[in-house]
Automatic annotation (TrEMBL), chains A, B, C, D:
Organism, as annotated: Paenibacillus artemisiicola
Highest taxon, organism lineage: Bacteria
Domain GFO/IDH/MocA-like oxidoreductase span(s) in chain numbering: 139-285
InterPro entries xrefs: Gfo/Idh/MocA-like_OxRdtase_N, Gfo/Idh/MocA_oxidrdct_glycsds, GFO_IDH_MocA-like_dom, NAD(P)-bd_dom_sf
Keywords of the record: Oxidoreductase
Protein name listed in UniProt: Gfo/Idh/MocA family oxidoreductase
Family annotation (Gene3D superfamilies): Dihydrodipicolinate Reductase, domain 2, NAD(P)-binding Rossmann-like Domain
Gfo/Idh/MocA-like oxidoreductase N-terminal domain residues: 5-128
Length: 392, 392, 392, 392
């Protein structure tokens, strides 16, 4: 297999990131099958035509059913708004397409499970878009843990801090409406932390959470792209129906204690996706604003030189980096998507499920929903309460 | 009033820190009443004599009742193990002595309340030993908050991370025995975080917590001073009866969300007492391992130069610093005790209660106990549940 | 003008970086003329064919004269080894091609001047490849200085620290041979620092330098790409004929004092291209290993909150960033080349010389050579000593 | 020997630091001979009486000759302004007193040599006040170097950055007058860097320097204590006769290259005394504003976890720290003087010369003067040019 034909639905922030990944992949990882940017789909004809031209897609369509039906498509890449994921994914699976779906998989756990069932019934590959796993520093963390160099893990504490909602005049964009986004900071940001926690530390047994919406009405927005938006403080306002911040405590199956916090009200933090892990043999620390770095501590270091090391994960010893630039020459946010696309291409070539896949997306969704229940019922909730007997 | 006669009970880690504070105070803050190091008390005669000589106390006694009874003592400074606080404090109050008691005030909230009642009945000053308030960087944080420069507070997240228990061969010192220490990382470390939270953000309404003892048996220790100890891995072992780590979520009366974590299992952290506060106008960040620094962010900074500032709180604009050295010349841990002693001297001179006092110690204890109940009953606990109708 | 046809000579480290820039440019900066990757040239036929395919060039040739002669080429991009720059550039200029030449322009100042003369005689655009100017954080530094927000500049101190030569078994690659590379750390690394100094602070009047070659013989290398190389410690060795480290002091025309250091022997530094600027109103600090950040200090900040701010230059207020990702989503090394290519495209479209151009390359070369003279003659050397009466 | 009687001349910034050291020493280092604060001397009677009372000296005198003549004095501690050092030191030596003289020893190398000759003729101990050597992090650096853990040293680069002169309205204090201070940033700040360089890397062979006085006239000051001063911008002004900034390059006897910079015009730096050392096996980094930390890098670390470690030098494995507080509890500027006084006490007890002593002060002075000559004559100056045939 030399090439994989891609059809993509959605062309905003994630659509741009995925498109760039497909463009870069063959140049930096020439040994993998090359993604072919076949068709892109969006509801606005002018918008999708412009995106196709700019991003480099051969065809532009406005009906996702048309795209899903095309015989010249191998993979359907779904990064449309979250409320559209389920229907598209199921249809694409039925059409025999491999699936690559941005997180969150769906608006509910039940929907996500339907999507997985459809994918499994169709025998297609299913990948969940959780890009942070693909930072070289995160891969290094994984390697150190797997090799036992951090020992038994006692603590995982993570925060995903943003500040784009601190200004009460920021408008009511779609991410603040429950019916479209499903959830606020919780589904958007904690989803990433939960995936990293599972990837690095393992499954979570139980959770207890708390959330808040600090600003309950906001001006109605005109348009939004990425996290930028236009609105007017004098015009009409609407209700924010998602959480501004959600925190929770967790107990891992392996015995570690977890602390999670997602907020869009942390002034000064544009995108602090950070965590620390403390084990019996050492500790690890990561902050996405310095994504090329991993701080590493070993209890076994000589007595007089114990301290966290700032490891710049740009050496040949670090995953992916030989494909890019010499040591010390850093990469950025977008590169995580190139590595994610690489995993998808290699999984298809090797006829295995990519990681993370829909099962990971569902595990993540289970924790998110357990936290929601915990908040509603003011109690600890075991993840096992959400399990289906016959399925997972 | 020119001088204040001190009698101190206890001469280990805190006794050393307090002694040094009394020695330094007159040199650096000559306008305050001078503490006179009159008598020191400890159960071991040789030990207390040696401490008296080394630290500079005029007299050494082995019976705290004798010290409390001395007519030439104005203040009784209690830094003996926690289980002795109550009896001494009540006796000293009855003898008309001002009280300066290390945290935690007592092993239980009920005991702490008895102590306050005794102090109030006797009309004496009562100070609680919560030294971190007295770091210049913390005073700066307080000032910025009080002046509204951070705006309305949305988030307080704090950790007190130590690592002296990561090694399972570390012995069973008194701090690991519930009957002496009352509690583990929770009472020892969260107590400080709660006091800082109350000082900076305000009262807490409700909490939900989680705790763990990772290593449940340890070798029996011979002796312990400070956090150092001697033990033998081959000898007999005993049960650890306190928590190694305790985390909790909190909701403040003012609407902020709080996250607290105390642990002695955070490899690589000798003494990270750190927090971050996010407000509507800015943020603050502190880490005791860099205690001379406060990181400060303002949302109102010009668009192109927004970022956390590393403020070195050693300028004349910062509390206490003109008494010490020129800007850029840092101070250390022990200086917080000098400032604490200054507050006590000035409160006595001005005939007012020092801050923090036993009421603060009780507020802190209420939160600690609410967390304990929350952990035992696996539910959210309102601080109001612990209030006495007629007292607080 | 919608498109610009590119012919590129060289396909190793810089060839890869330039190729990627041409690929990315139309997607992220669609309003600029699009570079068309027409033809690539290299001496090894298999190698250049492979590079053409991988990087996305339409044609591959092995004779640079053929490439220069093609009528369908608008720009000749020269990133072959330094000793080939002059001949190619002059021929390309004579053929009426715009020039884009990697630094250093040539092996000597005299050669560089010939290249400029040829470009001017032909009336073509001439750009010098000094990519670090194009980091958003550097653009922010430039803006703050130009707007007077840092005041009069007193100090510029810069280091370019690498460590790939610390191991004496590292082989004798072409960068260590004077006849090919022209110079060692001086021409390779100080060239960048000098360009940044000129860009941000202004012209240099005089210099005094010092250099050293710590390891004078090394194993002969087989091959080298980027900074990686293969060699054998047991095989034959050869002489290192360039400097491992070169330092110099400088006095700027505007009165500032400068300190420059380039070395490949700074263990722990993969690529620390860093500087600090101190002015009468504030200071700036940059480190390429954290290239998305600029530290900024203002003397005018309120007395109690003075400190260096860590500005993450990923906001819409920062140059280029609206084209990429939302705030807090960082970019990497390669993006500087995209911005560099953007400048070239826009300069051609607007019929103006790009910045930096060959004049900047020559100014940089003058300083480099003045330092060389200073080292040889152990004295201060004025840049004016190297000026041609009739030209610069 | 149990006690050492001290007589001290000077009672401003350094007098305060020394006094505090004598007060603290017996409490924290009880095994050393105890300094007895016998007599303090200053020209202003009220001032010196006040200082004696505040700092804890038994007697106050206004004539240093009286102090030097007292039979009950063992050590004369000289921290008066630099122009008074020589006469006092020689007289004290003749009176058989041990000498403890703040840096710079004298206004000239010749004077410093006379002082050493006097001390040697009298057979007394002579200590130079270079306190930074006594930071635990610096001791750790020394240990790592001595044990060969950093390998052969290639680079030493150091800066001492302050900013108290950036404001042109800052008054003309004594430190800005050559006849009193001897020199500006060079003698004040580079002296410390040179001493650290010698202590850690070894002797310097040759230097080439540059200096500048950015603000040449300043308002005349009324009074000055420490680095604070009062002045009036409208009143009369006077000429600044010392350097605001001095930089120099150096070549060490061992082959390392050195870069030194001292300035009082580095906005944002209150007291950045920092350096980095690069060796063949690792690197070290220090910044006095974070004086409890040493950053350490080892080339021998595993390939995937190479990085600078932030070592908090507060563990029992670090010099002096067991005498203070538990790990993670930091110390400050003043503690360096306690350790310095400890060295003096132990040297007297053990009948050996303390380190650093007058010979170190002279070595330092030689480098300072070689730089001055280099600046005046615009050439490299070998330290050997300043050597006396018959003495050093």
């Amino acid at each position: 297999m030399k090439e994989v034909q891609i059809g993509m639905i959605g062309y905003k922030f994630m659509g741009k990131a995925h498109s760039h990944a497909y463009r870069d992949l063959p140049m930096f990882f020439p040994d993998a099958p090359a993604p072919v940017m076949n068709a892109i789909c969006g509801r606005d004809e002018a918008g999708v035509r412009e995106a196709a031209k700019r991003f480099g897609w051969a065809h532009a369509v406005t009906d996702w059913r048309e795209l899903v039906a095309r015989p010249d498509i191998d993979v359907v890449d779904i990064n449309a708004p979250s409320d559209a994921h389920k229907e598209i994914a199921i249809a694409a699976a039925k059409a025999g397409k491999h699936l690559f779906c941005e997180k969150p998989l769906a608006l509910s756990l039940a929907d996500a499970r339907e999507m997985l069932a459809a994918a499994e019934a169709a025998g297609v590959k299913h990948m969940a878009g959780l890009n942070y796993r693909f930072a070289p520093a995160i891969r290094l963390a994984k390697k150190l843990i797997e090799e036992g160099r951090i020992g038994r893990i006692h603590h995982f504490r993570a925060v995903f801090l943003q500040d784009w909602l601190v200004d009460p005049a920021f408008p009511l964009v779609w991410r603040l409406k429950k019916e479209v986004a499903g959830s606020g900071s919780h589904g958007d940001l904690n989803a990433h932390l939960i995936d990293l926690a599972r990837y690095l530390v393992g499954e979570i047994n139980e959770v207890a959470g708390m959330s808040e919406t600090f600003v309950r009405r906001r001006p109605i927005a005109e348009s939004m792209s990425g996290l930028n938006a236009q609105g007017s403080a004098d015009g009409p306002s609407g209700e924010v129906t998602v959480d501004d911040a959600t925190l929770f405590l967790a107990r891992f199956a392996g015995g570690a204690l977890g602390s999670f916090e997602a907020t869009r009200f942390a002034a000064g933090h544009r995108c602090t996706n950070g965590f620390e892990i403390n084990g019996s043999e050492g500790s690890l620390r990561f902050d996405f604003e310095r994504m090329n770095e991993l701080e590493v501590y070993f209890t076994g270091d000589a007595d007089d030189v114990q301290g966290f090391r700032r490891v710049l994960a740009t050496d040949p010893a670090h995953a992916y980096m030989e494909a890019w630039w010499p040591p010390g020459h850093t990469i950025g946010f977008e590169h995580t998507f190139v590595h994610e696309a690489l995993e998808l291409m290699e999984a298809i070539r090797d006829d295995r499920q990519p990681e993370p896949n829909f099962r990971d997306g569902i595990r993540c969704q289970e924790v998110l929903e357990a936290v929601d229940i915990s908040i509603a019922e003011r109690r600890w909730v075991a993840i096992a309460e959400l399990k289906e007997d016959d399925h997972d």
